[in-house]
Amino acid sequence: MEFPFTKTVNDENETAKLAEDFVKIIHKGQVIVLNGNLGAGKTFFIKNLLARFGIRNVNSPTFSIVNEHEGKIKAYHFDFYRLNKIEELYDIGWEEYLNDPDGILLIEWGNLLQDALPSKRIEISISFIDETKRKFEFKEYE
Ligand code: ADP
Ligand code: MG
User: Fold this and answer.
1) Helix (H, G, I), strand (E, B) or coil at 132
2) pTM for the full model?
3) 3-state secondary structure of 69
4) Ligand nearest to the CA of 42
5) Looking at ligand 1, which atom is closest to the CA of residue 46?
6) Which residue is closest in CA terms to ligand 1's atom 14?
7) 119-134 confidence digits (pLDDT tens)
8) Among residues 100, 78, 99, which one has the least CA distance to residue 89?
9) How far apart, in Å, do the first and last CA atoms of the chain sit?
10) By the 8 A CB rule, do 46 and 71 touch?
11) In Å, what is the CA distance from 100 to each residue of 50, 95, 130, 137?
């Protein structure tokens, strides 16, 4: 996969396949932001991605803000949806998460707190086309 990359998928299986393709270019220390409306498939994509690292118990961190996982890789799964202020993120140790060279960061709704995001990141925007069809757009920022 080379960026920018756009793909329209027809169903969940194709999303799972896309997550499999994407996982091949992931490495430790990377920050991956997922944007898209409620029900777009951000959590679904992350579940499939983390399954490739042997991580299975993936749920939406909407209330917890962050879920920590350890499989073949360390993963920090964030959801910014319920955060009101950037301070709330720093209070739970945002900088330590960002500076962990061994972890990958996956951030749902990263667009809601754009100022907190590092300049180097991959952004995935998911748009709802119909009940099972989604458009995925991948971009890399340096
Ligand atoms: P988000 O985290 O973006 O709010 P979720 O991943 O929690 O969204 O929910 C996406 C929902 O859409 C799930 O119920 C999933 O089964 C369904 N869905 C249907 N088609 C697709 C698809 N092609 N890709 C991802 N999810 C899909
Ligand atoms: Mg979600």
Assistant:
1) coil
2) 0.98
3) strand
4) 1
5) 6
6) 39
7) 999 999 999 999 999 9
8) 78
9) 17
10) no
11) 18, 9, 38, 27
Q: How far apart, in whole angstroms, are the C-alpha atoms of residue 71 and residue 47? A: 13
What number does the ligand 1 atom closest to the CA of 134 have?
A: 23
- Across the chain, mean pLDDT equals 97
69: tokens are 């996982």
Place of tokens 């080379």: 2
For residue 10, give the 3-state DSSP assignment: coil
Q: Rounded CA gap, 140 and 142, in Å?
A: 7
- The string of pLDDT tens digits covering residues 67-93 is 999 999 999 999 999 999 999 999 999
- Ligand nearest, relative to CA of residue 131: 1
Nearest atom in ligand 1 to the alpha carbon of residue 47 is 6
Q: Which token pair is 25?
A: 């270019």
Distance CA 90, CA 126 (A): 27
Q: Could you tell which of 44, 50, 78, 82 is best to mutate to test the pocket of ligand 1, judged by most ligand atoms within 8 Å of the CB?
A: 44
Residues with Cβ within 6 A of ligand 1? 9, 11-12, 15, 36, 38-44, 60, 108, 132, 134
Q: For residue 73, give the DSSP letter.
A: S
